[in-house]
TrEMBL record:
Protein name: Probable beta-carotene 15,15'-dioxygenase
Keywords of the record: Cell membrane, Dioxygenase, Iron, Membrane, Metal-binding, Oxidoreductase, Transmembrane, Transmembrane helix
Family: Belongs to the Brp/Blh beta-carotene diooxygenase family.
Any one GO molecular function term: carotenoid dioxygenase activity
Taxonomic lineage from the root: Archaea, Methanobacteriati, Methanobacteriota, Stenosarchaea group, Halobacteria
Compartment(s): Cell membrane
Length: 346
């Protein structure tokens, strides 16, 4: 069986680990806020939830994603950067084509991308800042990533089925109005079956990790965070939950990881390190390309605003779009970039 080298203690300073605690505090604060609102019988309409999602995902999360690519590509040289961008655009084009050809399959892949990014990205943060000594083999790490990432989509699919099915419909409608109806009758069975698989996966992950632990504290951090994520996604309405998770949990923790491993990075080759000026230009060009791509998808899609509310339609459209650009973020920027990668931990 493939074994994985693990280290205890993690990199970084107390300040970097302080950011981990900050991510817990922020998520718990949102959770308590939502519970208090429910207790006081205050409900939030879908337009407000959609506004929160769009603020979190477009204003906060999107620029952070751009920064992750810049940080990964800086000092890697032009030939590497060109190959990276070429492959990136190829996957983007493939995913857009998939949405047009088979929008329900596209939706399933979008959900899988969110699970994968939350799961594997989250695991790398633990590697860097806490240690994952209780995860000894590749399959066990795969299971850990499935559980961690599954909290983001599988838990809300189970606990918020109405909103989940509605937004799934809106996302598919962008490309082929009415196409979700073909699978809608199986949604309940699917959701219950997937919920069962997920619950079993959580049990096996926690149990195996406990048996294989070296330090109890690292196992406790992992299962404690998993429990917090499950509670958060079960209790916070799905649109707000996902819209705040990516900027307030995922991105905040990735920046803690980047800080923690900064001193471990190979020293940059001055020949291939661009000036700050060049980095700013690349960032602006990246932003123009990103919004240009969104405009292109909106122009090509038959029904880009799939509901009569612009904010709600915006959530559906942006969820499709962010998944399209997040697929190569995971595959090209992290998995294929074996020397470094966006989630690099030495
Ligand atoms: C299906 C579905 C959703 C899908 C969201 C997705 C697929 C988000 C992807 C985010 C990514 C990949 C972020 C990367 O940084 C919503 C809108 C939560 C509402 C409930 C139903």
């Amino acid at each position: 069986m493939a074994t994985v080298e693990t280290r205890i203690g993690g990199f970084g300073t107390d300040r970097d680990r302080g950011l981990l605690s900050a991510s817990w505090i922020v998520l718990i604060a949102v959770l308590i806020g939502v519970l208090l609102a429910q207790w006081a019988n205050v409900s939030m309409d879908m337009r407000t939830q959609a506004g929160i999602y769009l603020f979190g995902m477009v204003v906060l999360n999107l620029p952070y994603g751009g920064y992750e690519h810049m940080a990964n590509l800086r000092s890697r040289g032009l030939p590497f950067g060109t190959r990276y961008i070429g492959l990136y655009l190829l996957l983007v084009a493939g995913f857009i084509a998939l949405f047009f050809a088979a929008p329900v399959v596209g939706l399933a892949l979008a959900i899988a991308v969110a699970v994968t990014k939350g799961g594997h990205g989250g695991l790398r943060v633990l590697d860097a800042l806490v240690s994952t000594d209780h995860l000894r083999t590749k399959p066990q790490r795969g299971l850990a990533a499935f559980v961690r990432g599954g909290t983001v989509m599988i838990v809300p699919m189970y606990f918020w089925p109405g909103d989940f099915a509605a937004f799934s419909t809106f996302m598919v409608d962008i490309f082929r109005p009415g196409a979700f109806a073909a699978v809608a009758p199986y949604f309940t069975e699917f959701r219950v079956a997937l919920g069962g698989v997920f619950a079993a996966a959580v049990g096996v992950h926690a149990g195996l990790g406990f048996v294989r632990r070296e330090a109890l504290s690292t196992w406790l951090v992992d299962v404690g965070e998993t429990a917090l994520l499950i509670l958060y996604f079960a209790l916070v309405p799905v649109v707000i939950a996902v819209g705040l998770y990516f900027p307030l949990w995922y991105s905040m923790r990735q920046s803690a990881r980047v800080e923690a491993i900064r001193d471990e990075l190979p020293s940059p080759d001055p020949e291939s390190t661009p000036s700050l000026h060049a980095v700013v230009i690349a960032f602006v060009l990246g932003a123009i390309a990103t919004f240009g791509l969104a405009a292109l998808v909106a122009t090509l899609a038959p029904n880009p605003l799939s509901t009569n509310d612009p904010l709600v339609s915006g959530v559906a459209f942006f969820s499709v779009f962010i998944s399209i650009i997040a697929l190569p973020h995971v595959v090209v920027g992290s998995w294929l970039d074996t020397d470094r990668g966006i989630w690099y931990v030495p």
